[in-house]
Every structure is written in C-alpha cells, then in structure tokens.
Design the sequence.
C-alpha cells in the first residue's frame, strides 16, 4: 500500500536524486566525462508520457508481433503454450504469452544466439544415443544457479550434452516443440496447445525428467533451454520483444535501468520507483 | 611470411590490469611500448546506456569470443577433455582493458602466510601435515617485500575501504573511505560481531568519492547502480584499466595499443625472446613485432598456452612431476569454493536490486592460516562475506528448497522472495596438486589450427572439508541474521569439477618461486630460462589464496615493471637462484 503512495511522489524524488547524484559523483565539478556521457545518465523526460497511460489498458498494435523464425504455426502454438505453463498468468500479473515471451524467443532464435555464433563450434562433437542410459540420466539441471554472476554455472549432464551437440539452438527448439506436439498427439490425440492445463504440465514434466525420446539431445536439455529462454523473455529489457510494458519487472519489483540508488540503498525503506527501460535511459 | 615491424623496447601481450600497469610504468619511464590486444577497442562511452541484463549477463557481450578459441576441460587424466563451448562456462575478458572492465572490484591483499605457505605450514604443523601429492611451495617473495607495491596499486585504483581489524600490517590507509552501509550489510555485521568475529567493509574499486590518482587520472564516485559485475561502468566510477593505467600510458606518447592483434607465438631464438608473432584479425595479415623485452600478460590460460606453443620452458609432466609450464593449476570454482547459506525472510524486504560489484562486508577470522589447523582435516582458510552486487531479474530467482523450478508455484515464490532473501558465502583457498595442470589438447584446435589449452582439474577431500567447514560458519551467521529459513549449500562426497570457469579466478601454469627446478618465473615474473621474457598475472600464483586475485596481480605487475626497468639497463637475471647462492 505504502508502495503506491511512493509511486506518486516519484517524479519529485527523481529530481532530487539527480541533483544528489551529480553532487556525489563529482560530475558537476567537471570530472573526466563529457556532455554526451552526462546526457546518458538520466532517463529522458518520460514521466509525462507514461503517467497518462493507465496500466492494464490494451496494447497498441505491435508490428513486431509476427514470426521471424518459426515457419509452422503449429510449432509456434506449442511454444506459446509451453512458455505459458512455465511462466503462467496468475494473481501477480501476466504470463509468458501476454508478456510477449514466445515472440521474444522467436526473435532470439532468428539471431546469432540461435546459431550459437559465439560458441566454440569445432568438432569432434559428441554423438548422442538415446538408448544409452548413461547419456539420458535425469538430473536437476533446471534448478536456478546457486549464485549469480561469478558463482554461476551449475553444470550437469544434460547441458553438457546440449553444448557438445552438433545441433544449434534453432534445431533443438524445432525438434523440441515438434516433440511436444507428437507426445500430445500420442497421449491425447490433439496438439499440445489444445490440451487442458494439467495435461500440458504433465507432458512438460516428462520432458523435464528426460523421459521423452528426442533424437538430437536428451529431452531435459531442450526443457532447460526452454525454461531459461522463457525467464529471459519475461525479464529482459522490453526492447527484445518480451517483458511487455515492463510488466515482468513490475511484478518482480525491479526498477530496470534505473540510474542511481544513492540516497536509497542505505535506507531501510523499500524503494519502488517506476522502472526505467533502455529506450528511456539511452539518448536518441 | 609474416611482415616484420620496427623494433621497440617492449612488446606486451594484453591490455588488462597486468599488461596495463606494466605498459604505463614503462611508458612513463620513456620506453617505447607496443601492446597487442586480440579484442576490439573500448572506452567509457561504450558503456553508457548499457544496463542490459540479457546482452551482458546472459549473452556475455564483453567476454572472449569462443568461436575463435576456448579451452578443453576434464577432471582426470583418463577422461577425454571436452571443449568449453559456451560463455556460460567461460567468463574470460577480451577487448581493451580485459577482465578489468567487467570485474566486480573486490580488492584484497593476500596474507603473509600465502607467500611462505610451505615453510610456515611445516614450521607450525610439521611436514606430515602436507598431504602426498600437494605441491605446496613458497612464492619467493614475502608479504613485507610486496607491501609497497600493494600500496601503489591501491592508490592507482583509488581503492575504497576501511582497515581490516585482523589484517596484516599496512604502510598506509586506503586512499578512499569505505562503501556505504546497507540494511542487509548492517544485519550481517551485527550478527558476525555477536558471534565474536570482526566484520569490515569489503575494500572496493567501486570508488566511493571522486578521486584523482597519483598519475593524474580521475575516477568518479560509484552510485550503486547494480549493473557492475559483467558490465563496464557507465559512470567511469569503477577503477578499470581504461580510466587509469591505459589513459596514463597513452598520455606519455610512448605507448601504442593495437587492437585485433591476436598473438600466436612468442618468437624465441633458443636463448632469448625476440618478439611476438600476431595475426591482425581484421585483415588476416601476420606480423612480427620485435622488442628487447617481451611481456606476456594475457591471463593464466593464454600465458601458459603461448609458452607451450612456442616451446619455451620445460612442460610439466604429471606422471613424473618434472617440468613446470602448466603446473599447479588452481582457482576458485563455482561449486566448491564459492558457497554458503541463503536465508529467506518472510516479513522483511530488502532493496536487493540495488548494489555495486564489490559492495558488502566480510570478516577474516578464518583467512589463510589465521586459525589453528592442528586438529582440522584441511589446510588454508576462507573469508566470509555478504555481498550485494544487485539481483538482476533473469539471473536471480531464488526460491526455498522443494519449490518447483517452473510453473505457478515457482513464479509466485520467486516473485515473493526476490527481495526477501540474502546470501552469506565463503570463498576458500585452493591448494595445488600434482594431478591438476594444463597442457595442450591433442584433438581440438583454435581458428588458426593451433591446439587448445587443456585443463585437468580434480577436487580432493582437502577442498570438500574446507568448504564444508566454511559453509557451517555461513549458516550460523545467516541464522543469527534472523532468516525464517536458512538453506546451506550442500557439498556431496562425490562433487566433482563442473568444468565451469565463471569466477575469473584461475591461476598457475607459469608459477613463481625461488627455485628454477620448481618454478618458471622469479619474483619479478621474469622467466628463469629466458632473461628478457616476463610473464605477468595470476599465472604466477603457486596456489590460490582465499581472496580475489587482482590486487596481488596488480602489486606483482608494479614490481615487474620495476624489474624490467632494471633489466633494460643492466640485463641478466634479477634474482639469484637458490641453487646458485648455495
Ligand atoms: C565477472 C568477473 C568478475 C571479477 N571480479 C573480480 C573481483 O571482484 N576482484 C578480483 O580481484 N578479481 C575479479 N575478477 C578477476 C579479474 O578480472 C582478473 O584477475 C584480472 O582482470 C586479470 O587481469 P589480467 O591483466 O591478468 O588479465 P585480463 O584482464 O584477462 O587481460 C588479458 C588481456 O589479454 C588479451 N589476450 C589474451 N590472449 C591474447 C592473445 N593471444 N593475443 C592478444 N591478446 C590476448 C585479452 O583479450 C585480455 O584483454 C573477476 C573476473 C570476472 C570474469
Ligand atoms: S555499481 Fe558503481 S562502480 Fe559499478 S557500474 Fe555502477 S556506478 Fe559503476
């Protein structure tokens, strides 16, 4: 409740913290950085623009909401349904579909990430045999990292398999969503997106547990890739097509590219400003 | 045929902290220096408007391009090493400034014990305390000898901190005041004090007040923006090579930095290094850059690999224990050194999204050998810390154990606990073993067709026992901090190396010491076998202390620059060998 009140006062507080920031950082004293740098330090005058738009209204037409990578609609529909199960709409707010996550993933796959452009891609690659139990052993790969940043990197058989596979992320995703539909057809004689919520969840669990036969990689490797991409789409800057209207950040109470926490970080009070997107933090 | 360029006084591989410090010091003295950097150019303006988690923390925009080169990795000698294919397992710097650009900025001095680890261990506990296969050795330098260089480094980087109440002696205070106290840091400090420990603010390169260093470079004040670790600083407030030593070097007019210059060999005529061979990755042309002194400062992995590729020094043989290049690989690994306890708070909320790379508090009551190991089943120690780097939303989704990792319950709890969980962790030291080493891979090659570096690294009970002891302390602190539930990280008996290189803390391969039989370089990081070849960086560390490495890398680099100056005037070995002086 108190959070909402704080919201209203925000424009004023921002001005105040700007001055503070300039003072404390020494930038007013004409430090080493020039004008262009200074300009980038603050979001553009955005408050007016954003204030008038009540949250929860329907989005304007977004011309970015078309497929650039997935060719078959049935594949994309399976992807949509699966991401929504991973990050569902609930009392906290929108789910993956409303946040634009499937389009985010589509765009990511179309780009260099989809073809593992920055990865080491020289052979020999590891051959993968679904019939070898050692290669498909289930594990806890999808668990979040024990610590972010430097402490990240919880390795496990499935992501090692994924990394050592000859296939790139595009190919793994295509096989993955098609296998979702196949499994659904086999069990329920319909496509994955048409299933009841619980049926969708059950099928995803079999992927997570490595129980589904996939040719390219163990099914849990596809699952953890899908899970990771879904979380990314929910919380990456909206410039990538997900986290629509910063709704992901709002649920997470994350201020985005907020310029400075001086004057806030040492206080006991929880700080909940309007989040700032890169569109407003970069200068154009 | 490579094109031969005009000879200079010194050629340096790398523009990170190690290469940057040496470059600046030599250029200041009037020597002509050329630095070769494989990555592109980079300046503060590149980081403006870059608070983009996907780009920098998930797609690793500032990290080494693995499509050109990586390393292979395995636990034991009987395994086939596999290449590290994705940056999620390889946070390694590239581009101007190297890892010094996207580092956190945590700065510690190593303990006096670290430098004399073998003699002091033997003296205190007897030879029997050192397990068979542990290749512990003294560094050939003492803390007191290195202290003036630590001081110089701290002043250059504007390190901001308060004196460690149980730390080794210092000639002067830190040049800037410590970072800000936050509610969770206060909780940590209060709890630690209550349990009898001596917490203090982590010494940081996230500079706390606008500061002009002795070279005349200005570093701005940190605003705790929380896009720090894996990011370049938007504000010019994090001490990095770009805003400090590289700017100093450039001002002299004696320092030329060449980007996109991928060094492929040290040119070596059998007695001295004559220069560096490199490929311009924008044109594909090969060049020879001759110099009187050659300095490798490319980080642990390239330093070791280039010596092996150039057939300089004696390669280490794990079967016989003979040779040195590649020996004593150590580091901080995400699943054995960087662990602790997480607390979930049901009715307390923290501003977890705010922070700075090195913001936090720590205590050193268990550092190195500062507690009695007589009855303990491990050597060395750890620091305990509570760091608030800033929880970015993709990366940080902690939920209590037993919560599913996706779906309704996961979403709800991860949202609820995002600002209601804190972590206290330890960072433990890693000691060297005969079986942990680096050599050239027999199968995989880089973009030039040269073999990749191969790393073989197996954990031991030493590692497991030490971290378990440390996690226990973290758990006590977190409980005292009042968390509603505390979850300690687990270290199973069969935990093995995860082939993941995310900490940036890796060492060895070209280790220092006072004996050419067991070390590759002397305490000036000068090669015993090749007088005019200096190899700088954590590749010199004979073991990994419990602290982050860079302040020690920086201090050693200052000493090396001094040594190179002497060498350029007088020539010869700067240190008399132990065997020679006997
Ligand atoms: C995310 C992260 C956070 C970190 N945080 C901390 C911290 O808080 N505290 C701390 O003490 N340490 C930290 N570290 C470690 C710290 O960054 C390193 O110890 C330090 O930067 C190493 O400096 P260096 O000069 O030895 O190597 P680097 O910075 O790696 O510089 C080497 C340079 O050489 C270049 N190079 C390599 N090979 C070639 C070649 N063949 N040809 C041409 N150029 C080449 C590279 O591109 C690079 O620019 C962190 C590391 C990471 C990755
Ligand atoms: S936290 Fe401070 S030092 Fe780090 S990037 Fe932000 S302003 Fe720079």
Sequence:
């Amino acid at each position: 409740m108190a959070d909402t009140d704080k919201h209203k006062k925000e424009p004023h507080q921002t001005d105040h913290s700007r001055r503070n920031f300039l003072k404390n950082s020494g930038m007013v004293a004409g430090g080493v950085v020039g004008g262009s740098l200074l300009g980038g330090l603050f979001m553009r005058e955005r408050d007016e623009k954003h204030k008038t738009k009540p949250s929860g209204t329907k989005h304007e037409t977004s011309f970015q909401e078309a497929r650039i990578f997935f060719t078959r609609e049935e594949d994309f529909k399976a992807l949509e349904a699966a991401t929504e199960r991973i990050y569902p709409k609930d009392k906290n707010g929108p789910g993956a579909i409303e946040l634009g996550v499937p389009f985010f993933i589509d765009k990511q796959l179309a780009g260099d990430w989809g073809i593992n452009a920055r990865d080491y891609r020289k052979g020999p690659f590891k051959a993968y045999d679904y019939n070898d139990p050692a290669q498909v052993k289930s594990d806890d790969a999808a668990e979040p990292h024990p610590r972010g940043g430097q402490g990240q990197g919880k390795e496990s058989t499935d992501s090692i398999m994924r990394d050592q596979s000859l296939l790139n992320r595009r190919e793994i995703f295509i096989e993955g969503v098609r296998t979702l539909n196949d499994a659904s057809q086999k069990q329920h004689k319909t496509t994955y997106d048409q299933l009841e919520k619980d049926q969708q969840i059950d099928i995803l669990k079999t992927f997570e547990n490595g129980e589904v036969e996939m040719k390219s990689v163990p099914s849990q490797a596809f699952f953890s890739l899908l899970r990771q991409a879904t979380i990314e789409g929910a919380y990456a800057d909206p410039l990538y097509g997900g986290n629509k209207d910063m709704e992901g950040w709002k649920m997470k109470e994350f201020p985005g590219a907020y310029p400075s926490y001086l004057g806030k970080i040492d206080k006991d009070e929880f700080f909940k400003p309007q989040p700032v997107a890169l569109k407003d933090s970069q200068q154009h | 045929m490579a094109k031969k360029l005009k000879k200079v006084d010194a050629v340096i591989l790398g523009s990170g902290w190690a290469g940057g410090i040496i470059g600046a010091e030599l250029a200041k003295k009037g020597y002509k220096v050329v630095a070769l950097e494989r990555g592109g150019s980079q300046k503060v303006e590149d980081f403006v408007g870059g608070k983009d988690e996907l780009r920098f923390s998930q797609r690793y925009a500032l990290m080494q391009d693995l499509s050109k080169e990586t390393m292979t990795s395995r636990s034991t000698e009987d395994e086939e090493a596999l290449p590290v294919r994705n940056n999620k397992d390889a946070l390694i710097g590239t581009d101007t400034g190297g890892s010094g650009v996207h580092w956190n900025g945590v700065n510690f001095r190593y303990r006096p014990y670290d430098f004399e680890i073998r003699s002091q261990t033997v003296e205190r506990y007897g030879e029997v305390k050192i397990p068979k296969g542990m290749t512990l050795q003294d560094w050939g330098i003492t803390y007191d000898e290195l202290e003036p260089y630590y001081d110089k480094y701290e002043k250059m980087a504007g390190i901001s901190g308060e004196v460690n109440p149980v730390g080794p002696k210092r000639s002067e205070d830190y040049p800037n005041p410590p970072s800000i106290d936050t509610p969770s840091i206060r909780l940590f400090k209060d709890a630690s004090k209550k349990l009898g420990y001596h917490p203090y603010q982590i010494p940081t390169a996230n500079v706390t007040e606008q500061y002009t260093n002795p070279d005349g470079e200005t570093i701005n004040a940190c605003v705790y923006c929380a896009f720090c670790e894996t990011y370049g600083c938007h504000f010019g407030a994090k001490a990095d090579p770009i805003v400090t030593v590289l700017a100093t070097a450039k001002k002299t007019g004696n320092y030329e930095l060449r980007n996109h210059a991928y060094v492929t060999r040290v040119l070596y005529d059998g007695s001295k290094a004559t220069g560096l061979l490199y490929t311009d990755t924008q044109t594909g042309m090969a060049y020879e850059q001759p110099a009187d002194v050659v300095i490798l400062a490319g980080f642990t992995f390239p330093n070791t690999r280039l010596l092996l590729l150039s057939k300089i020094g004696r390669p280490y043989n794990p079967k016989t224990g003979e040779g040195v290049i590649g020996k004593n690989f150590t580091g901080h690994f995400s699943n054995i050194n960087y662990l602790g306890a997480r607390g979930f708070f049901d009715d307390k909320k923290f501003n977890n999204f705010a922070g700075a790379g090195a913001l936090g508090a720590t205590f050193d009551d268990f550092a190195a050998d500062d507690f009695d190991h007589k009855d303990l089943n491990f050597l060395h120690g750890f620091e305990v810390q509570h760091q608030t780097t800033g929880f970015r939303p993709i990366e940080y989704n902690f939920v209590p154990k037993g919560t599913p990792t996706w779906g309704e319950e996961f979403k709800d709890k991860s949202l609820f606990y995002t600002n209601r969980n804190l972590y206290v962790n330890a960072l433990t030291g890693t000691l060297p073993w005969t079986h942990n080493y680096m050599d050239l891979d027999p199968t995989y090659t880089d973009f030039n067709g040269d073999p990749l570096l191969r790393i073989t690294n197996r954990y031991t009970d030493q590692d497991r026992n030490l971290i378990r002891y440390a996690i226990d302390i973290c758990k006590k602190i977190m409980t005292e901090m009042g968390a509603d539930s505390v979850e300690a990280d687990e270290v199973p008996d069969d935990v093995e190396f995860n082939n993941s290189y995310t900490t940036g803390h890796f060492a060895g391969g070209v280790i220092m010491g006072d004996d050419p039989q067991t070390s590759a370089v002397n305490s000036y990081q000068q090669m015993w076998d090749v007088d005019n070849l200096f190899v700088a960086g954590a590749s010199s560390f004979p073991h990994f202390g419990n602290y982050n490495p860079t302040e020690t890398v920086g201090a050693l680099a200052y000493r090396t620059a001094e040594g190179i100056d002497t060498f350029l005037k007088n020539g010869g070995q700067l240190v008399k060998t132990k065997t020679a002086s006997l």
Summary: Chain B touches chain A through 93 residues (CB under 8 Å). The mean pLDDT of chain B is 97.
